[in-house]
Automatic annotation (TrEMBL):
Protein name: Peroxisomal trans-2-enoyl-CoA reductase
GO cellular component, one term: peroxisome
Pfam families, sorted: adh_short_C2 (PF13561)
Main location (coarse class): other
GO biological process: fatty acid biosynthetic process; phytol metabolic process
Catalytic activity, EC: 1.3.1.38
Localization per record: Peroxisome
Keywords attached to this entry: Fatty acid biosynthesis, Fatty acid metabolism, Lipid biosynthesis, Lipid metabolism, NADP, Oxidoreductase, Peroxisome, Phosphoprotein
A GO MF label: trans-2-enoyl-CoA reductase (NADPH) activity
Protein purpose: Participates in chain elongation of fatty acids. Catalyzes the reduction of trans-2-enoyl-CoAs of varying chain lengths from 6:1 to 16:1, having maximum activity with 10:1 CoA. Has no 2,4-dienoyl-CoA reductase activity.
Organism the protein comes from: Tigriopus californicus
Pathway terms, separated by semicolons: Lipid metabolism
Amino acid sequence: MSVFRPGLFTGRVALVTGGGSGIGCQVSIASRNLERLDKAVEELRPRGDIQAVQCNIRNEEDVRSYDWLFMWTSAAVTSTLKTFGRLDYLVNNGGGQFPALSEDITLKGWKAVIETNLTGTFLMTREVYRQHFEEHGGVVINIVADMFRGFPMMSHTGAARAAVENLTKSWATEWAENGVRVNAVAPGIVFSPSARDNYSFDVFSEARSEIPAKRLGTPEEVSSAVCFLLSPGASFINGATLRVDAGGSLYSKLMKVIPGSKPP
Ligand SMILES: CCCCC/C=C/C(=O)SCCNC(=O)CCNC(=O)[C@H](O)C(C)(C)COP(=O)(O)OP(=O)(O)OC[C@H]1O[C@@H](n2cnc3c(N)ncnc32)[C@H](O)[C@@H]1OP(=O)(O)O
Ligand SMILES: NC(=O)C1=CN([C@@H]2O[C@H](COP(=O)(O)OP(=O)(O)OC[C@H]3O[C@@H](n4cnc5c(N)ncnc54)[C@H](OP(=O)(O)O)[C@@H]3O)[C@@H](O)[C@H]2O)C=CC1
């Protein structure tokens, strides 16, 4: 997702997991696939000072670490601080899941989704707080999802995202005195090739009719919300979740077709 806008964030530094761009802001983008990250850096370099950091957010060593001599390493947080000398924003955007009925989810699959969406967000945020925000303050944005009525067919991610929404509130209170704000953004349905490839049918075409606006959202519409919550314009907003879904989370769509009811 394209995260920053010109002018608003000049001189500020952001660490964004799962891609995202820096326009008018210095940015580290962090995910597992270095080849894809390097490609994104090449595309975005003309628009801002941007670096790629290979990091599996599920892996504490990737997220954390200084080495035993406290030398800088290539880990996500330390390398951002080394390159840019400061850190103002963390956007926990990295995440994903696969569609499956709960009874079909293996323990390995459950753990993969919980570790990616919940543990990864916890590790990244804890590390940024310890290494920088505790002393200097900052803003955290957690990208969650429309799980407000449960998440049939994706119960693992529903549970993880609901937990992240709850963490958002805990952190907002725990770290307020250190000048840290923590908010969440809950996108509705936005086209994503990786999600498309996870489905056996054309999920995005079908989803369109389930959205009151009768269209999908765009990455820019999500990034506008992220930018607002990062900006001083949101300085009195803490612990909130902003739904960016054109009202989709209020609409009675069924993600799993229920053909009929059996007698009790
Ligand atoms: C109504 C429509 C809503 C659409 C809204 C879209 C929302 C989005 O979030 S868009 C972004 C979505 N993108 C993705 O979700 C793609 C990324 N997904 C993943 O990376 C994986 O799904 C992951 C999160 C589970 C983690 O993958 P990884 O760490 O690489 O783990 P493995 O691939 O090795 O899988 C571990 C384990 O997980 C189970 N599993 C994985 N994929 C599936 C699948 N498609 N179906 C069923 N089970 C799956 C499986 O148990 C895997 O173990 P093995 O069986 O030993 O491979
Ligand atoms: N598209 C949509 O409709 C919606 C999306 N969301 C959420 O918004 C976020 C962005 O989604 P979108 O851009 O559409 O999807 P993408 O699948 O394109 O982006 C997900 C990103 O997360 C990264 N990622 C996944 N696992 C890890 C990991 N273990 N460590 C580090 N990075 C990881 C991936 O990079 P890599 O594989 O290189 O690690 C990828 O860049 C995700 O959290 C998604 O679940 C929420 C609601 C709806």
